[in-house]
């Protein structure tokens, strides 16, 4: 005879518990946090470098750079002017989890910070199950990747608040239709916001900065 | 391959349940996996089989129930099942949907051998009846 014993428990309940702690700390601080996700090489670190160069005298940014094997991205961000940069080496794991982020945040003073950005490991599948306590996920699609990307990775696009269409300067060299990628993203997530930009030429960057400032302001307002 | 990490989380919860509920052995763990979770069931089963070897769960298998994406349309109030991640109401073409299922990543049950010589009554009484 086999007997079934009911056990109602979320598999990632421990991750979600820690993510909840992070979220409530950031909520009290009124500190906006973003989780950047994409395929490898879509331009996450480059956008952060440009953002540091443009805004680090106006905004206090805390950056966490996740990578499987190196701290190259963190080193690039320091070079671009980042003063509060924390690498996380996952040593094989294909995603960051809340515990890794929490360990970094436990040793970091967040007083006076305006923005926390977590660059996740380049991977459109694995990070989607792991809540890091962020306000929103920002998913990147570079124009070299194909405008059907949202359809291939629906889980991640469904969970993201903003889609950045990156490397816009390469559009003339690619078979990529911006209207199609937006339509594809919105069949999966009707509410997703979209910004198109090129970190190389600076095209569209103003809209990204405006989006950041607006969301930072909204988060601070909500904490008052 | 985050299935291995997910399998590990399932194993940890099952091992804890085994201790907490004083179980001799667990034959299977039942999990509910929504299709929106980006988890490949075969990879999860494979990963689980590997990591439980030489643990107290050796030989225990996973029983996976896939949960489709379901909800209601806020425009026409009809029940909908989303296929192929097209989040558009098949009845009225509205995109204003309330999704209630398909994100699950839950443990639902564990299965144990229920043979005569496992006195269920004595299980959580810590043998107190025998001391008198
Ligand atoms: N032409 C062009 N190239 C870009 C742009 N943004 C990034 N790149 C290039 O794309 C490559 C990858 O950029 P990264 O910023 O390192 O990408 P990433 O998403 O951080 O990569 P991982 O962290 O490895 O996943 C680099 O060679 C960049 O120079 C852009 O706007 N235009
Ligand atoms: Mg990077
Ligand atoms: Zn409808």
What would a concise description of this structure say?
The complex is a heterodimer of chains A (224) and B (132). Chain A is an alpha/beta fold. Chain A has eight helices and eight strands; from the N terminus they run βαβαβαβαββααβαβα.
Can you characterise this structure?
The complex is a heterodimer of chains A (224) and B (132). Chain A has helices at 13-29, 44-55, 72-79, 98-106, 149-152, 154-159, 178-188, 205-223, and strands spanning 2-10, 32-37, 61-67, 85-89, 115-119, 136-142, 160-166, 193-196. Chain A has a seven-stranded parallel beta sheet, sandwiched between helices. With 224 residues, chain A is of the alpha/beta class. Chain A is 38% helix and 22% strand. Chain A has a single domain (18-223), classed as P-loop containing nucleotide triphosphate hydrolases (Rossmann fold, 3-Layer(aba) Sandwich). Chain A is built from eight helices and eight strands. With 132 residues, chain B is an alpha+beta fold. Chain B has a single domain (2-118), classed as 2-Layer Sandwich (hypothetical protein PF0899 fold), CATH 3.30.2320. Helices cover 26% and strands 28% of the residues of chain B. In chain B, strands 2-1-6 form a three-stranded mixed beta sheet, covered by helices on one side. In chain B, a hairpin with a 5-residue loop joins strand 3 (69-73) and strand 4 (79-82). Chain B is elongated, with a radius of gyration of 20 Å. Chain B starts with a helix and ends with a helix. At the A-B interface, strand 1, helix 1, helix 6 and helix 7 of A face helix 1 and strand 6 of B. The structure holds guanosine-5'-triphosphate (GTP), magnesium ion and zinc ion. Zinc ion binds at residues 73, 75-76, 78, 89, 91-92, 94 of chain B.
